[in-house]
Amino acid sequence: MTGRLKAALAVIAVLIVAILAIGSFVLWPVISPSTPDLAVPGGSAPGAVVEATAKTDLPILMQISRAKGTVVEYMSTDPTGRPVQVSGVGFEPGGDAPEGGWPVVALAHGTVGIDDACAPSRSAELGGLIGIAQALVGAGYAVAVPDYQGLGSPGEHPYLDSPTAGRNVIDSIRAVRTVFGNVSNRWAGYGGSQGGGAIWAANEESARYAPELSPVGTVDAAPAADVVGLVAKARAGTLTSDQRAAMQLIIEAAARIDPAFVRDDYRTATAAAEWDVLSACSGPLVSRRDAAIAALGPGDVGPRSDAAAARLTELLRSYALPRMKASAPMLVLYGDADTFIDPEWTRDAVRRSCALGSVVESSDQPGKGHGDVDISSALGWLKDRFDGKPAPSNC
Fold first, then answer.
1. Is the C or the N end of the chain the one with fewer CB within 10 Å?
2. Max CA distance (Å), the chain
3. Rounded to whole angstroms, how far apart are CA atoms 3 and 90?
4. Within a 10 A sphere around the Cβ of 366, how many other Cβ atoms?
5. For residue 303, what are the contacts with CB-CB under 8 A and spacing of at least 6?
6. Which CATH number, 3.90.1150.10, 3.30.200.20, 3.40.50.1820, 3.40.50.1000, labels domain 49-225+327-386?
């Protein structure tokens, strides 16, 4: 073996050792993850932490950065004003927190179903929000992801009850601050669809419900702010296929909570035959759900009488937004081709919020539907709010 070859092999050996050493250093948090210290003081006040366990299925980039995760049970407030236990997930970035603690972003999920098994905290994907959560943690934000009442926790889920879900959002922020201990009181929020209504409601409620917190702004994408119009469309037989699916979940959720909501007052025999399939979010029935939705006719789901229509209208009005001036600026993004939430319903909710004195920038996106709304401006908009820049408004 020549001296030159020996020297080359020595260099290669050194490089291999260096690469292995660097790789081991980078991947050590994955190979040997640390167990975070999680505060669980208990109590019954809104936001009080009842139980917290380490979330061990973090995405690899979170693991490498030493981010912390928790599945948390905490207290909130139900539609009647009574304490209720709910669940969710929280994340804290790795490293040293900035002065005042990590700013926190609440992520409010869209429709996942109405059963316990549907709860985002039950899956590694968090109901489709894990990618956004990872990006926010990487940008230096703590993150709170509530399941909402009745998803993953005792009791029934009041589907599309934005005020209740909004309190669940606020209390998830309180819980994350308690569990990790180094999270700021400054918060922002993002939510889409059902979560758009939840995060809008959390914005409105924050100043009254949680005066110790300091909201800087929320992004509401295709928000389910006011869907009272579903009742008139159901009576007229003009619900879209997507709206029939949403109506079925509204009726089933209401019937589970209130015996006055008799399912047969809101469905035909055709719908009743596939009702369990239409309600499913997990298990073998899920594979049949899309076909069952497609098979629903224009009049198969909705009130069968004036009395049933009045009862459902009253319920949806109790869910509707706005209810008060927003506590912080809002960016409302929606499409003019939305087949779940008619765009005029969102436009009207924005107009009413503006009339109450809210600071709102709304973007009515041509050709966009419900799930393809362009949210690329959301992270930059939220950063500007945390940076204290004046919020634009086109009220």
1. N
2. 97
3. 58
4. 7
5. 231, 234, 235, 265, 266, 309, 311, 312
6. 3.40.50.1820
Q: Which helix (H) or strand (E) holds 206?
A: helix 194-209
Token output for 290: 């899309």
Number of residues that this document lists for the chain? 395
Q: What is the DSSP letter of 104?
A: E
CB 116 within 8 A of CB 102: no
The string of pLDDT tens digits covering residues 168-227 is 999 999 999 999 999 999 999 999 999 999 999 999 999 999 999 999 999 999 999 999
Give 105's strand partners.
Answer: 143, 188
The pLDDT tens digits of the residues spanning 132-180 come to 999 999 999 999 999 999 999 989 999 999 999 999 999 999 999 999 9
Distance (Å) of CA 59 to CA 62, 69, 117: 5, 10, 21
**What are the residue ranges of helices labelled H in the chain?**
3-31, 60-64, 130-138, 162-180, 194-209, 229-236, 241-257, 269-273, 275-279, 289-295, 306-319, 343-355, 378-386
